[in-house]
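During the second half of the funding period, the structural biology subgroup turned its attention to how the target accommodates small molecules. The most pressing case was adenosine-5'-triphosphate, which had performed well in the primary screen but for which no bound structure existed. We therefore specified the complex as follows and requested a full 3D prediction, including the ligand pose.
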Amino acid sequence: MIVSDLHEKTSLPDPAAPWHHQAIAHVLQVFQTDEQQGLEGPEVERRQQFYGPNEIEAGRGRNTWEIFLDQFKNVMLIMLIVVALISGVIDFVELRANALPEGTVPFKDTIAIMAIVVLNGLLGFMQESRAEKALAALKKMSSPQVRVCRGGQFSEVKAAQLVPGDLMFIEAGSQLSADGLVLEAAQLQVRESALTGEANPVTKRICPVGLAADTPLGDRQNMVFSGTEVLQGRGKILVTATGMSTELGKIAQMLQSVKASQTPLQKRMAHLGKILVTGSLILVILVVVFGSLQVGNFSRIKELIEVSLSMAVAVVPEGLPAVITVTLAIGTQRMVKRQALIRKLPAVETLGSVDTICSDKTGTLTQNKMVVQRLETQDQSLRVTGEGYAPIGEFLSQDQNLNPTQHPEVQQLLRACVLCNDAVLKQDDQDWLIIGDPTEGALLSLAGKGDLFAEALQKEWPRLGEFPFSSERKRMSVICAMPNPDQAESTAAYLLCCKGSPELVLERCQTYQTATGIFPLQAEDRAAILQRNNEMAQAGLRVLGFAQRCLTYVPEAQAEVNAEQEMVWLGLVGMMDAPRPEVKEAVAKCRAAGIRPVMITGDHQLTAQAIAQQLGIATPDAKALTGLELSKLSQVDLEAMVETVSIYARVAPEHKLRIVQALQSRGKFVAMTGDGVNDAPALKQADIGIAMGITGTDVSKEASDMVLLDDNFATIVAATEEGRVVYTNIRHFIQYILGSNIGEVITIAAAPLIGLSEVPLIPLQILWMNLVTDGLPALALAIEPAEPDVMQRRPFNPQESIFARGLGAYILRIGLIFSVISIALMAYSYNAHPDNWKTMVFTTLCLSQMGHAIAVRSRTQLTLTSNPLRNPYLIIAVAATTILQLMLIYVEPLRLFFDTQRLSGQQLLICLGVSTLLFVWVELEKLVIQWYWAWKNPPKSR
Ligand code: ATP
């Protein structure tokens, strides 16, 4: 009630009213919207303030407490809590029995472990909150743009800025972001499954008088709804509801376009965590059971429990999950900096496995800045001058200036360019800009050079119907009313103008237009036109064919098969779309990295070949497979060819799906680009689906794993490089962390075996090692920059386990070496330095890991030959960790808390000396690898 009062007071309409039931004229009046001009700027601002942003408010997610508590569902943390509790019970029993050793603070271990558990939980909590914020920011960036008309000016605005009363223009591929009434519809079909569950497309139409008030949502053909997708056609919509007032908002069905999903790696790590915890529990039970069978006294049982607890804590890599989360988050940030927006987190790590990149041509490999350079009618062969979209230039016939207004056949062709066009050409300060498809923008600019402008012409020849463009049809037609039908050659009152792929348009023509009249198209005329088309395509031009037809009637919406027949051929227009300069280098980089680039385009095969050749995607003699040829191949035949074909031309979106499937069945890991609504299945099927940020439809973005903010092929290559870096770094720190864990466990288990009466490390020290002395350098390893040869290696096999290519063996080997070193030191210091031996083992283990962190950065390059400043964070982390470790020994309160002893200078030097052995071992391994490679690949003698 209050809301309605408010609407009355402000004289602004209530979005919740049943607008489908009202006549169009009435609704326009209520919303105070001019059907041609739209709302004026100040009015838009007033409504933005009143209605708020056009956004679906986020539903109640997890609150801060829930996120925090969720951290403790981690099985490893639960185990630590149990360890803390058992430790507490032991202390309690001893306290009651007055058996605590003198000077010992009761419950110290329990408190410390719990503190670290909480700290670990806090860390996870902070990362998750940060990740949620980052995802929200990404979501904002990927929010769609909407074409509107305000104050008579067309522009693109962010969907969030729409207000009720706006005029919004939609077309195939648009994701609707507001509810609205249909003012114009040309074969407008919408998928409403997100809202109504109905999978079949719904046809939308104008309904001047409105529908019955009780028409159910799914049958409201005169309305479109937020959250649905346009599958086909075009429409002009009066926005009636935005944000939470939309039907989507009402049922609070949120559109979460960016989802945080667990990556395969995170899942594998969670699994690993469970295995480790189970393993350590079994270990604990074994030690306690067998140990207590041997001895019967309580203090020995307590000791056994402590050994097992230490082992249990040591085996679990407590710091690992946090480091992985941070690495993936940093990976997405690095990729955004390089213009690649990751929508699904797994893409960060899987990008490193891509071995085939299937890319569109127009806009991705080329600049999508079209400039018409040639115009061919049956009488004239013209060169067109001028740059950019400015309608300034000349028509040259054999270098002579030609005035198109004096050549009726050229004039008719230019008229078709303007009428059969949905783009808008406008001047902004000094610049000429287009809104809409660059191909169509170039045609408007061409016509402007011949003094034909859309505003005047479209008024004179109002559009009454159209058969819209689609990548399947590869053409579009419009039907316009003739301004003075009496003067027309026939009794026809309507003109159909068609443009599209020259072969397809020409097929539908019977005659051709010249300056003197219309003549029948003979077989040789057709051959000559196609020959001309081929020549232009071979020069890398994108060529469109034009035709027209006079009609005595306006054809039905679905009657294109009959209407686009018996047309009069007008001519060809060839436009240049230059390759992007940076792509050639990116293609070369791909090849060096074992990635094969493949061009998949709707354009002519010769144009495709010319561009592919310029970019180095294919050799001059490489054959292009056309969509027609492809549709005749069985899937098995296609699979046999797919590894050698690098150019697919004149393809339709469904062919893309077949190509991805064929490549995948040959074991390829495919990244595929797409922009159209029908590209969505191929994008979903591809291992990495890539949508275009600028020209891509909302539907394609929704289906993708990654969005290219600049539509550029080079960005895909850059993202792939980042993916490889992320994966390599993950492997580095996993081998670093797990090697250390194995070393710790063996060292602790060895103590009773070699006859020592105590455990060398208490749980608190182990936690310190796993979280701090392992964790900090591991974080630094996560941000290690790319190794110089990262794009000279073959892609990672996506099937391989994270422990493949020797990583598992490395971890075991290093764990063993690590423990051999520390056991040797333990045996020596137990006798030689009986007061400080435990601290010496603890210090040696920590310092060894510092050397390991420095050496582990490369499997082949010696540390001495690499630039130490390449990753300054690692140096900082190693220095900081070493200082912290020394503080644990020399700062009184810390020393007491961590149960360490002050080491003498000599003892510290011994620890330092022994701990370099691990570093030396890893470096020696590198030398062996280098020698092995040199022996296997001897330098070729000249
Ligand atoms: P890519 O698939 O590499 O992006 P493309 O833009 O040529 O290339 P489509 O958009 O599927 O692919 O277009 C296919 C063909 O349809 C074009 O080669 C052209 O002949 C024709 N075409 C493109 N845009 C239009 C249009 N707006 N109106 C009519 N025909 C068009």
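Two results from this model are relevant to the next phase. The CA atoms of residues 860 and 930 lie 7 Å apart. The pocket of adenosine-5'-triphosphate is lined by residues 360-362, 437, 439-440, 469, 471, 474-476, 499-501, 544, 601-603 (CB under 6 Å).
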